[in-house]
Each structure stands twice: as C-alpha cells, then as structure tokens.
Amino acid sequence: MLNGKNLVLCVTGGISAYKSVYLASKLKKLGANVITVMSKNAVKFVSPLTFKSVTANKVTVEMFDESDFIPHIKLSDLADIVVVAPATANIIAKAACGIADDMISSLLLSVKSPILMVPAMNTNMYQNKIFQDNLDKIVEFGFHTITPAIGELACGTSGIGRFPEIDTVVGKIEKILYKKSPLFSGKKVVITLGGTIEDIDPVRYICNGSSGKMGLAFAEEFILRGAEVSIIAGNVDELALNKFRLKFPDIDGARVRSAKELKEALLKKETFCDVIFMCAAVADYKPAYSENKIKKTDEELNLKLFRTEDVVGGLNKSPNKLYIAFSAESENLIANAYHKLLSKKVDFIIANETVGEKKAIGGDNAEVVLLNRWNDNLFKVEYSDKRSVSIKTLDEIEKIYLANRS
Ligand SMILES: Cc1cc2nc3c(=O)[nH]c(=O)nc-3n(C[C@H](O)[C@H](O)[C@H](O)COP(=O)(O)O)c2cc1C
Questions:
Q1: Pocket of ligand 1 (CB under 6 A)
Q2: Distance between CA 214 and CA 327 in Å, rounded?
Q3: Domain count, the chain
Q4: Residue 99 belongs to a domain with what CATH number?
Q5: Closest residue by CA, ligand 1 atom 14
Q6: Is 224 inside a domain boundary?
Q7: What's the rounded Cα separation, in Å, for the pair 121 and 43?
C-alpha cells in the first residue's frame, strides 16, 4: 500500500538517527518514494550520503540552497505523508510553538499532508512536564505520534524513550495513509484465531493445523480500516503472531487454550464489541481429561470424545452487532456453509476448503467464498495470499452490509 507514495522522512539530531536509515530502507523496499530531510544536528550523527544511497534520492539539509527554489514548499506540495523520525524534544517544542527556523520546522508549518512524529530520547527528557505539554499540544494540532518503546537507552539507563521497532513505525504509517472505512472505522472488533487445544492428560492433547494466519491477516485489515481490534488467540504460528505484534504492539490480545476458554473470553468481549469475527478453528470434540499421564500398555487405547460447547451458536447475538463466522469444509462447501449461516444465525459466513491444493488451513494462501444472510449471492475470492483475501472479503462485506442493514 506504500507503493508510489511520496514519503518525506525528516531526521533530527538524536542518537537513534541511525535507526532511521533502516526505516528508510524498509519504506523504500515497500515501494515508497522516500525523500530525506535532515536537521544540521542530525548530520552530526549520520551522513546524508547514507540516506542518499539507501533512498536513491537527494537529501536536503540546507534551507537556503542556491540550486533549489523554495525547497520546503516544494516538498510540502509533494508529500503524501511527513514522518519525523527520530523526533527530538527540540523539534517537538518548535512544532508546538510554530517556530520555523530551519528546513524541517518550516516544512512542518507549510505541509498539508498528515505528519507522524516518532519521539525518541532519554527517559527524563521524555517525562519532563514541558516536553509532555508540547507533545499534548502537537497532538491537539492534529499531528500523529507513536509512544516510544521501553528498554535500554544509549545513555546507559533503562526506561521509556527508545526508538520503536521499525515495523511499528511502518504499521502506523500504513494506518494513517489507509482509506478510512465507512463501516469499520472507530468500531470495536473482536477476532478469534488459531486452533484450540483439548487436553487428554498432563502431556498430551488434541489440536488442529490452524496457524492463525487468516485471522491475523483480517486483524491487520480491520486495524488499517480504523477499527479498534482485540484478538483472542488459541494455538498459532508464533512467528506470525510475533510479526503482527511488532507491527501493532498496542493491540489488545488474550491467549486461550481450549474451546471452553475461548467461548468464555469471547462472551466477555461480545457485549462491548460491534463486530464479532470468528476465525478460530475450534475443536468440536474433547476427551475426558485424565489427571495422571495415561500409562502406555500393549493394549489399544480408545479415547471417548465429547462435544465441546458451541461457540458461535452460544453467543447472545445482538441485532445491532455484526457477526461473521468461518466454515471450514472438506466436502459440499457451499451447502454446509449455508447450513451454518442459517443454523448459527450469523450475518456472513466465509467458507474455505480444508483439503486439496487450495486448502486454507495452516498455509499462507486461501480461496474463500462469502455467503450472506440477505440473499443467495456467492462472492468468491480466488486462491491468493491471505492479506489479499482479507482485503477483497472485507470490501464485499462492507458493500453488502451497507446496502442491506436496516
Ligand atoms: C550524543 C547526543 C545524543 C542526543 N540524543 C538525543 C535524543 O535521542 N533525543 C533528543 O531529543 N535529543 C538528543 N540530543 C540533543 C539534541 O541533539 C539537541 O536537542 C539538538 O538541539 C537537536 O537538534 P535538532 O532537533 O535540530 O536536530 C542528543 C545530543 C547529543 C550530543
């Protein structure tokens, strides 16, 4: 989504200026046209040549450059977004007061595009009342900001003030630039994802191959569309979950193990959420739990399985909320998905295959069919990566729901 966007990256004189080189590199890889502006003090930390090499663009430091005609206005007209990273206490104070005594501060006053400030500094500086007042002021003026990370700082102490993870900054930029959704913006969305685990004894369990990647792909899309997302995650691909967490560290999340735990967590959230998105692969059956490890013998072992509680069917189903569930089938995909749509009384079913080349479970790609409760139309999203599936499916859900809701 950053492809072709003009991103003006302003680097000010903080110790973490070198991290901005990685940020510039990542943004460039994502397709953005990155134009760097550096303060005179930033140049003491990192050479403009480094940014020029990474971004393949000229770097501006001087306001009064004979070769350029009113450079700050040219850049303000060009920018889709301005990102100040790192943003020193000094540039934030200048922005709060409207001082325009160098290239970056002048640009901040003249630009019409969104501005993201990424403050990074020593904890005492960050917590200083004057700085916090300035930060509040720029937020009031409409600047976007990211809360710095907590951890080790260059000055040898530990606390709040670290430059955030690069992925966190990228996630924030994408969120700012993304089209706001008429349906989901500002709405509370709870998403269940991953598989549940049903314990047999203290060391053994029954699980399934769900990775949670489909739920995470949809969670990302809901976040970018402006929703306030909570996730309830069962057993997932931990690498995928960590990647998601790096990009969106502020997202509310809970971990659950069994179908019972998932249902309890979801029931608690249902009351407060506008959209209930049920992507988890919940176990239909569970064994009777043995407190002791079942001893190995030469005999066959028969496990008797009992029905787990019905998660989707067991919700309160308020008419003011939007309920979206998944149906994973290995045969009669559409007929079974229709049955679920009607019997579970949900608004949408996203049906996907569990067998064959286009199976969705565990992998990075999927093919899905969307069914809705208002008409018999089927909307198919061809086999593609799960992020693309989430975009196309939510576009269609928005269209159908906005046209049909009473
Ligand atoms: C070694 C060193 C590291 C610094 N690191 C930071 C920092 O991380 N954050 C910050 O706000 N200021 C930091 N400063 C102070 C700024 O460099 C100083 O406020 C400067 O005036 C900022 O100028 P600028 O905002 O025009 O780039 C540091 C100064 C020095 C000497």
A1: 12-16, 39, 41-42, 88-91, 120-121, 125
A2: 13
A3: 2
A4: 3.40.50.1950
A5: 14
A6: yes
A7: 17
Contact 46, 11 (CB under 8 A): yes
Distance of alpha carbon 342 from its chain centroid, rounded? 31
Q: Is 235 in the same domain as 146?
A: no
Indicate the residue among 112, 143, 177 that finishes a domain: 177
Ligand 1 centroid from CA 153, angstroms: 14
Mutation pick for ligand 1 pocket among 46, 60, 88 (CB with most ligand atoms within 8 Å): 88
- Whether residues 340 and 234 share a domain: the answer is yes
pLDDT score of 180: 83
Residue nearest to atom 21 of ligand 1 (CA): 90
Question: What would the pLDDT profile of 284-294 be if each residue is shown by its tens digit?
Answer: 999 999 999 99
Residue at 230 is within a domain: yes
Beta carbons within 8 Å of 107's beta carbon, 6+ residues apart? 8, 10, 37, 72, 75, 76, 82
Q: Is the pLDDT of residue 66 over 70?
A: no
Range of the domain at 84: 6-177
Examine the domain organization and report whether 125 and 217 are in the same domain: no
| Active-site residue flag, 207 | no
| pLDDT of residue 31 exceeding 90 | yes
Q: What share of the chain has pLDDT > 70, as a percent?
A: 98
Question: Tokens in use for 292?
Answer: 């002791």
Claim to verify: residue 148 and residue 238 sit in the same structural domain: no
From the list 10, 97, 155, 273, the catalytic residue is: 155
Ramachandran region, residue 56 (left: φ > 0; alpha: ψ -120 to 50; beta: rest): left
Q: Summarize the confidence of residues 312-338 as an average pLDDT.
A: 91
Residues 204 and 296 in one domain: yes
Q: What's the whole-model pTM score?
A: 0.89
Lookup: tokens for 390 = 């989430």
Confidence of residue 25 (pLDDT cuts 50, 70, 90): very high
Q: What is the pLDDT of residues 322-332, one digit of tens each?
A: 999 999 888 88
Closest-CA residue to 329 (of 337, 318, 319, 321)? 337
- Same domain, yes or no, for 302 and 377? yes
Q: Among 40, 61, 90, 153, which is best to mutate for testing ligand 1, by the most ligand atoms less than 8 A from CB?
A: 90
Q: Which of 160, 151, 77 is nearest to 123 (CA)?
A: 160
Mutational pocket test of ligand 1: of 10, 19, 41, the residue with most ligand atoms within 8 Å of the beta carbon: 41
Domain containing 371 — which CATH number?
Answer: 3.40.50.10300
Is residue 348 in some structural domain? yes
Tens digit of each residue's pLDDT (9 = 90 or more) over 212-266 = 999 999 999 999 999 999 999 999 999 999 999 999 999 999 999 999 999 999 9
Alpha carbon of 41 to ligand 1 centroid (Å): 7
Last residue of a domain, one of 142, 177, 212: 177
Residue at 183 is within a domain: no
**Does pLDDT of 122 surpass 90?**
yes
Tokens of 42: 């930033």
